[in-house]
Amino acid sequence: MYSLDDARPPAASYHGEANIPAYLKRHYWWAYMHPWAVKFFDRPWLINLILLGNYKRLRDAALAEFDAKPLGNILQLACVYGDLTAALAKRAAAQSGMVDVVDVLPIQLKNLKWKLPARLPARLLRMDSTELQFPAQCYDGVLLFFLLHEQPEAVRARTVAEALRVLKPGGKLVIVDYGRPQRFNPLRLLLAPFLGLLEPFARSLMQRPLEAQLPPGMALRRQSFCGGLYQKVVAFRQG
Predict the structure, then answer these.
(1) Helices (H) then strands (E): counts for the chain
(2) From CA 4, how far away is CA 103, in angstroms rounded?
(3) According to the model, what pLDDT value does residue 90 have?
(4) DSSP H helical segments within the chain, as ranges?
(5) What are phi and psi of 108, to 5 degrees?
(6) Among 213, 122, 136, 217, which Cα is nearest to 175's?
(7) How many CB atoms lie within 10 A of CB 161?
(8) Residue 110 and residue 105: Cα distance in Å, rounded?
(9) Quick one: what percent of the chain has pLDDT higher than 90?
(10) CA proximity to 173, closest of 210, 122, 226
(11) What is the domain partition of the chain in residue ranges?
């Protein structure tokens, strides 16, 4: 059994702002770093509103990829608002698995610690998604839930590379994030000003298929939601 208190990340403490990426401080302090932001945004109704009523659908689509028994060791890159992680950890408890969650922001790890029910097989570690302090091929599954659209392209590429590095042969990488809306989807134009102002890196993700950011030859499954605005891509590492 693991908790934030007994987890031992190799090269960082859980306090202060050391080693926090500059793009996070510049563009996302208002959403993830300020204490008021955490209290404000981590509300089910608000998360659902931001995702245009699709939070439960997208959460369940991600969780559906982790129904196997035994579940094995799962890595979630970045804390997320809402109850996704608690639901994933409950699955792990019921399926002889374990969940590691890494995040570079101490305040997000503390917030998640208080949200998780006691005695779940979940370990919380402070770590940058581009420099995971784990050996290669040690996880059966890796989950990226609405992380990549918040990263610059170069950072995004390193995050995906690290996720694949720690994935075992036969394991799966699950990505749920924004996609490219279909041509006649009215949200394509309605959301453009919002994304341009608050999500400066999202449009570059939406303009290029997620599959193009993965190594060639990987077995893939793709599912679209809300007229292409959201997507789930599941990639399998070959043995």
Answers:
(1) 10, 7
(2) 12
(3) 95
(4) 22-27, 35-41, 44-50, 55-63, 84-94, 106-115, 153-165, 187-190, 192-198, 202-207
(5) -70, -40
(6) 213
(7) 14
(8) 9
(9) 77
(10) 210
(11) 22-236
Q: How confident is the model at residue 16 (pLDDT cuts 50, 70, 90)?
A: low
Which candidate, 206, 205, 228, 87, places its Cα nearest to that of 151?
Answer: 205
Closest CA to 90 of 124, 121, 44, 111: 121
Q: Which residues contact 189 (CB under 8 A, 6 or more apart)?
A: none
Structure tokens at 171: 């394991």
| The CATH fold of domain 22-236 | Rossmann fold (3.40.50)
Judge whether 62 and 176 are in contact, CB under 8 Å: yes
Point out the least confidently predicted range of 5-19, 36-50, 104-118, 182-196. 5-19
Q: Place 18 in a pLDDT band, splitting at 50, 70 and 90.
A: low
Burial class (CB in 10 A: 0-12, 13-18, 19+), 152: middle
CA angle at residue 41 from 36 to 44, to 5 degrees? 140
> Residue 73: exposed, middle, or buried by beta-carbon count in 10 A (0-12, 13-18, 19+)?
buried
31, burial (CB in 10 Å: exposed 0-12, middle 13-18, buried 19+): middle
Which residue, among 153, 159, 178, 189, has the nearest Cα to 50 in the 3D structure?
A: 178
- CA–CA separation, 123 and 74 (whole Å): 10
